[in-house]
Amino acid sequence: MIRSRRPIRPASIKFDSAACLLCQWRAFSTSYRRLAEIEAPAPPPKPSGPLDDAPRSYGKAVSEFTPKPLSRPIGLPNPPRPGENTGIDPRTWRQRRADFVDYDKHLIRRKVLTQKISTPYFREWSNMRMHKGKSFLAPPGLFKREKALYFPNFYGQTLLKDKIHRDTTPLLEDKISIVSVFSSAWAENQAATFASQKNNPELHDVVKNSGGLAQMVQINVEENALKAMIVRLFMPGLRKRLGVDNWGRYFLVRKGISDQIRDAVGLLNSKVGYTYLLDGECKIRWAGSGPCEGDEKEGLVRGTRRLIEEMKTKRKEKPTPLPQRQIREGQTQKAAAPAA
């Protein structure tokens, strides 16, 4: 008779169906690896902007393009401040040396230089063949103040004889401003179709009768040092043509305008003139590009009148400070005392 050394288990005892520790660890490691391989959810698609399809000096070349009216506001999300976008490097020599030997910053600089080198030189001129370089059509009405975006700060030399560089933000604050931005004589002529005395005398009458609430501002962007020097040579002629009152409203800007600012504001072609209507908070309430077409000129005049009326109403509703009110009441009482 053969006897087994293993103890005979009774039938009431069932085998444990749980996996051993090694199997559990293998299952855990496999599931952990699979969880790690799961890709993160893709971010929500970025809403298309009003200038996404417009031709630019960089990127893919566009052979056919039809400008469309601005359906949404353009500009920067943050209000401008004096001292921004000056193009002046505030770093010390030690900081510049540290940044020069920093490999990560070197990669960023190399990427920027590669983008500039790869930009075709005649791309902007070729884009001028499509609707004379017009990037967009003016909106049918003003952008709402709550949703409007901001116009950036520019820094440059004015026609004043002190030759001091100034910021545009202090000039644009608390004023209704029609701002013309151009970089060449061709672009200046395009912007003149919106805001010059010859092409839009009604607009000048509205500005003249605004009581100092509205103004005309011109910004000449010349990043080329030689062209900027030529503009400086012709500044005496510009002073005679514009008049003494407008010397401080003409800016010659050379630096500080990045590609991000150009894309946000709509300055997509340096050979094209652009016109902006700003309120007292430096918000872009209306914009036009290239030569004036259709009823864009009338829309600019209507928008300027409406902003002037809004500013007049706002100033009337503004309460008088308490000290001035007390002074006026005291003066009234003193004037009424002798009569009694």
TrEMBL record:
Stored InterPro entries: ATP10
Positions of region (Disordered): 39-91, 310-340
Gene Ontology cellular component annotations, sorted alphabetically: mitochondrial inner membrane
UniProt-listed Pfam families: ATP-synt_10
One Gene Ontology biological process: mitochondrial proton-transporting ATP synthase complex assembly
Protein name: Mitochondrial ATPase complex subunit ATP10
